[in-house]
Amino acid sequence: MKKTTTLALAAALTAATLSAQAQITLDGVITAAEIGATPGKYASLGAFTTPHVGDKGFGFAGLLRLYGANSSGKLYIGLAGTIENGGNNFQLYMDLPGKSGVPVGTGLPAIAGTSTVFGTFEKGGIGGTKLELEADAAIATTGNGDVQAAIYTATTGVAKSLGDGLSTAITKDGVPSTVDGAQTTGAYSLFAGTRVAYLAPTGNITTNPGNDNGGGAGSYALEYEFDRAALGLPSGASIVRVFAAYVSGDAFWSSDVIPEIPGNGNNNLEFSPDFTALAGTQAATVNVTVLSNRKADEAVVALSVFPNPSQGESTVVYQVQGSAQNVVVRVTDLVGREVRTFVEARQRVGFHELKVATGDLAVGAYLVKVQVGDKVATRRLAVTR
């Protein structure tokens, strides 16, 4: 069984940090001041550690490191690295709370046409690729500066450019561009308000300042600023899983993926790889906490419950801070009588995600109560059919 590394973006919260403010400047550079363990700063989600060489992989271009950060209203993803001019692109796949996309290990549905990098081409396509996260959505930026998106359900996928001029608006000089609102309606509303910035070095990846420090401080990067509300991230705690890759404009996968494949080096993955059959776990976990107006106990527990109303199952996410503590998770009726206890155990520090079956509960209103040590948080949960 593979173990997914959990990387918390939120440090221990105090009353002074309940409204985490972004400390990210969207300019295509991952600066030292933007990296840290406090809310609003970038945390590393993994790196591609194999040196880029001219005759292997995709040569002197590709990924260096993947970062994530969050604030009260935004989710930030930074992909340190360098994209070649042309159709080659950095792709970012996202597993979002409360969404139902392509299950882990199921081939991505084929998307007809060659108008986006997520389509189907003469020698292959993104369709059939098996990921180690549930694929709800993906976004890509090409070496020509075009921003494209794919939206998935369990069995279908659609994709398009979010541009209408974005390919010229993103100029590779770190100046941020906002995705055209007219392109983010319907299924693409997840990316409403998204801003993008990319800074290209003067030459290939060897001239990217991050090439010498593993994608660390000073790296030139592709940066995304997503709107939390548009992504559907709930208040309290939530978990977003992400996966980054460097792929050709006609769906040929390079060696560069983050989290990387142990031992793979510069060996390209070719068409429609099956990541479930490869070493390691190609999914990083972004733990997100936003607690702007919650009382102190609720701020510490950071409880969220979604979807709500529930039709068969909901997800409960909470955090344990400071040290391992006794945790109780239960559902009660509205007057406090216990309906079911799901957890009663000592748990480690960090974020915890629990699937709660509600299909056998009578339709109506309940309370989800999570006690961590002496701190208690409560959410009302509606059960429907």
What layout of secondary structure does this protein have?
Elements: E1 6-8, E2 29-30, E3 43-47, E4 62-70, E5 74-82, E6 89-95, E7 137-142, E8 147-152, E9 157-161, H1 166-169, E10 177-178, E11 195-198, E12 219-227, H2 228-231, E13 236-247, E14 252-258, E15 270-271, E16 284-290, H3 296-301, E17 304-306, E18 313-320, E19 325-332, E20 338-347, E21 350-357, E22 364-372, E23 375-383
Parallel strand pairs: 1-16
Antiparallel strand pairs: 2-12, 3-4, 4-5, 5-12, 6-7, 6-13, 7-8, 8-9, 10-11, 11-12, 13-14, 13-16, 14-15, 17-18, 18-21, 19-20, 19-22, 22-23
Please write the string of helix (H) and strand (E) elements. Answer: EEEEEEEEEHEEEHEEEEHEEEEEEE
What is the end-to-end distance? 34 Å
Q: What is the helical fraction, as a range of percent?
A: under 10%
Oligomer: single chain
Explain this structure.
- This protein is mainly beta and 385 residues long.
- The protein has 2 domains: 284 residues, no CATH class; 89 residues, Sandwich (Immunoglobulin-like), CATH 2.60.40.
- The chain contains 3 helices and 23 strands.
- The strands form 4 sheets. Strands 1, 6, 7, 8, 9, 13, 14, 15 and 16 form a 9-stranded mixed beta sheet that branches. Strands 2, 3, 4, 5, 10, 11 and 12 form a 7-stranded antiparallel beta sheet that branches. Strands 20-19-22-23 form a 4-stranded antiparallel beta sheet.
- Strand 17 and strand 18 form a beta hairpin.
- The longest helix is centred in the last third of the chain and has 6 residues.
